[in-house]
Amino acid sequence: MQxxxxxxxxxxxxxxxxxxxxxxxxxxxxxxxRARRAExxxxxxxxxxxxxxxxxxxxxxxxxxxxxxxxxxxxxAEGLDALSMRRVATDLGMSTMALYRHVASKDELVALMxxxxxxxxxxxxxxxxDWRHGLERAARRDWDLYHRHPWILxxxxxxxxxxxxxxLAADSESTFTSFDGLGLEPADAFRYMFMFTAYVQGVALxxxxxxxxxxxxxxxxxxxxxxPATGAGGARSPLxxxxxxxxxxxxxxxxxxxxxxxxxxxxGLAGVLDGIAADLARRGIEx
Length: 287
Description:
Repressor_TetR_C, Arc Repressor Mutant, subunit A, transcription regulation, HTH_TetR, Tet_transcr_reg_TetR-rel_C_sf, flat, TetR/AcrR family transcriptional regulator
């Protein structure tokens, strides 16, 4: 489609970098700016990328929500390393400075992205049938979250350093309701929660690492470089050569050829919950 100057209608040449041009010259750009200022309300913000209201040909109004959605789209597709205020501004067709009028920094943007991504998967609206059901549905919700947004794992990992996120706190509070009615001491509830979360996030780390490895492989192929001669799995790996590793090799061929991480996650989760059940029984707690 042939692009045309938004002011005089003169055809524009396509650009290979940055956002598409809208004007053929600085004179046309200035003329359009003066026209927008004349039509805008007296209290409208000057410049910076926010569109005056009431103009059907103007781009959508820049808001925090639009910025956050654009940031999530970048991180989902390319990881957090690709995220920057400049990149988000380019994808939105705005100036970088326009974004800073709504979001103070990249760190603030990532924090807002975490909140939006977590609240995008609603918490249960009914109490669990029992503690096991509560933990199972919490695990499924988190597993879904990490698949939708692999980048979020590094921002919600269990850590000894205090970090407050309203959405993360609400998620944990919901999971803790799984233990309601058991009469657990808070320290015991925390111990079980730590065991459960460490398992879920540990397996999710394997998934996220695979996602990043595949992304890097695509980038390598795009650059025309050869992939490494050895890998973690497949026919090229010495692990799959008969007799090379008499214990490790058969185990890998039986359990990871091919990998089914979803099935391994479910079976491993059952083992963790069985362990909690055994500990509750040992302590005489009816569950």
